[in-house]
Amino acid sequence: MANVERLTKRLEKMEKWITDNGNGPTLNNFNWLIDVIKGNDQRTHEMNQNHEMFRNLFQEYMSGKELLEDWDEWLKEKDNAVQKQKTEEVSVQEEAESSEEVIEAPEEKE
Protein backbone atom coordinates (compact mmCIF):
# COMPACT_ATOMS: atom_id res chain seq x y z
CA MET A 1 0.00 0.00 0.00
CA ALA A 2 2.92 2.32 0.70
CA ASN A 3 4.12 1.90 -2.87
CA VAL A 4 0.74 2.99 -4.25
CA GLU A 5 0.77 6.10 -2.05
CA ARG A 6 4.34 6.92 -3.06
CA LEU A 7 3.53 6.52 -6.77
CA THR A 8 0.35 8.57 -6.38
CA LYS A 9 2.34 11.43 -4.81
CA ARG A 10 4.93 11.20 -7.56
CA LEU A 11 2.21 11.30 -10.23
CA GLU A 12 0.61 14.32 -8.57
CA LYS A 13 3.97 16.12 -8.59
CA MET A 14 4.43 15.33 -12.28
CA GLU A 15 0.91 16.53 -13.11
CA LYS A 16 1.55 19.75 -11.17
CA TRP A 17 4.84 20.27 -13.01
CA ILE A 18 3.11 19.76 -16.38
CA THR A 19 0.36 22.21 -15.38
CA ASP A 20 2.92 24.79 -14.25
CA ASN A 21 5.06 24.43 -17.36
CA GLY A 22 2.31 23.90 -19.88
CA ASN A 23 3.55 22.88 -23.28
CA GLY A 24 6.73 24.86 -22.83
CA PRO A 25 10.09 24.10 -24.38
CA THR A 26 11.13 21.75 -21.56
CA LEU A 27 8.15 19.48 -22.10
CA ASN A 28 8.62 19.63 -25.87
CA ASN A 29 12.27 18.62 -25.47
CA PHE A 30 11.26 15.78 -23.19
CA ASN A 31 8.71 14.53 -25.74
CA TRP A 32 11.32 14.81 -28.52
CA LEU A 33 13.80 12.74 -26.51
CA ILE A 34 11.17 10.07 -25.89
CA ASP A 35 10.44 9.93 -29.64
CA VAL A 36 14.16 9.60 -30.41
CA ILE A 37 14.52 6.74 -27.94
CA LYS A 38 11.47 4.97 -29.39
CA GLY A 39 12.86 5.40 -32.92
CA ASN A 40 16.26 4.03 -31.91
CA ASP A 41 14.62 1.07 -30.21
CA GLN A 42 12.55 0.34 -33.32
CA ARG A 43 15.60 0.58 -35.61
CA THR A 44 17.59 -1.72 -33.33
CA HIS A 45 14.77 -4.26 -33.38
CA GLU A 46 14.59 -4.08 -37.20
CA MET A 47 18.37 -4.51 -37.49
CA ASN A 48 18.24 -7.58 -35.25
CA GLN A 49 15.44 -9.04 -37.36
CA ASN A 50 17.39 -8.38 -40.59
CA HIS A 51 20.53 -9.90 -39.12
CA GLU A 52 18.65 -13.03 -38.05
CA MET A 53 17.00 -13.31 -41.49
CA PHE A 54 20.38 -12.93 -43.24
CA ARG A 55 21.96 -15.52 -40.94
CA ASN A 56 19.18 -18.00 -41.74
CA LEU A 57 19.46 -17.34 -45.48
CA PHE A 58 23.24 -17.77 -45.34
CA GLN A 59 22.87 -21.05 -43.44
CA GLU A 60 20.30 -22.29 -45.97
CA TYR A 61 22.52 -21.30 -48.91
CA MET A 62 25.60 -22.92 -47.45
CA SER A 63 23.70 -26.13 -46.70
CA GLY A 64 22.04 -26.18 -50.12
CA LYS A 65 25.33 -25.76 -51.97
CA GLU A 66 27.06 -28.22 -49.64
CA LEU A 67 29.62 -25.57 -48.77
CA LEU A 68 29.08 -25.81 -45.04
CA GLU A 69 31.86 -28.38 -44.56
CA ASP A 70 34.32 -26.21 -46.53
CA TRP A 71 33.32 -23.23 -44.41
CA ASP A 72 33.88 -25.16 -41.17
CA GLU A 73 37.33 -26.31 -42.39
CA TRP A 74 38.28 -22.76 -43.35
CA LEU A 75 37.22 -21.50 -39.92
CA LYS A 76 39.31 -24.17 -38.18
CA GLU A 77 42.36 -23.23 -40.27
CA LYS A 78 41.81 -19.56 -39.51
CA ASP A 79 41.44 -20.28 -35.80
CA ASN A 80 44.65 -22.32 -35.76
CA ALA A 81 46.53 -19.53 -37.56
CA VAL A 82 45.35 -16.96 -35.05
CA GLN A 83 46.33 -19.15 -32.11
CA LYS A 84 49.83 -19.68 -33.54
CA GLN A 85 50.53 -15.95 -33.81
CA LYS A 86 52.92 -14.70 -31.15
CA THR A 87 51.81 -11.98 -28.82
CA GLU A 88 53.80 -8.78 -28.76
CA GLU A 89 56.24 -8.69 -25.87
CA VAL A 90 56.19 -5.65 -23.61
CA SER A 91 58.99 -4.86 -21.20
CA VAL A 92 58.05 -4.99 -17.54
CA GLN A 93 58.75 -1.98 -15.34
CA GLU A 94 59.94 -2.73 -11.85
CA GLU A 95 58.70 0.57 -10.38
CA ALA A 96 56.26 3.17 -11.55
CA GLU A 97 57.81 6.37 -12.84
CA SER A 98 57.25 9.47 -10.78
CA SER A 99 55.81 12.55 -12.47
CA GLU A 100 59.23 14.27 -12.22
CA GLU A 101 60.93 11.42 -14.04
CA VAL A 102 58.33 11.53 -16.79
CA ILE A 103 58.72 15.29 -17.18
CA GLU A 104 62.53 15.10 -17.16
CA ALA A 105 62.69 12.26 -19.65
CA PRO A 106 62.26 14.37 -22.82
CA GLU A 107 64.88 16.86 -21.62
CA GLU A 108 67.45 14.10 -21.10
CA LYS A 109 66.98 12.83 -24.66
CA GLU A 110 67.67 16.21 -26.24
Features:
single chain; 110 residues; mainly alpha; 0% strand; flat
What does this structure look like?
- The protein is mostly helical.
- It has a domain at 23-66.
- The chain is 80% helix and 0% strand.
- It has 4 helices and no strands.
- It has helices at residues 2-21, 25-64, 68-84, 99-109.
- The protein is flat and about 65 Å long.
Break the fold down into its secondary structure elements and pairings.
Elements: H1 2-21, H2 25-64, H3 68-84, H4 99-109
Number of E strands: 0
Taking pLDDT < 50 over at least 5 consecutive residues as the criterion, the unreliable ranges are none
Figure out the total of helices.
4
Q: Helix- and strand-based class? A: mainly alpha
Mean pLDDT: 80
Order of helices and strands: HHHH
Query: What's the helical proportion of residues?
Result: over 70%
Specify the biggest β-sheet.
Answer: none
Distance between the termini: 74 Å
The general outline is flat
Strand composition percent: under 5%
Radius of gyration: 30 Å
Summed up:
The chain is mainly α and 110 residues long.
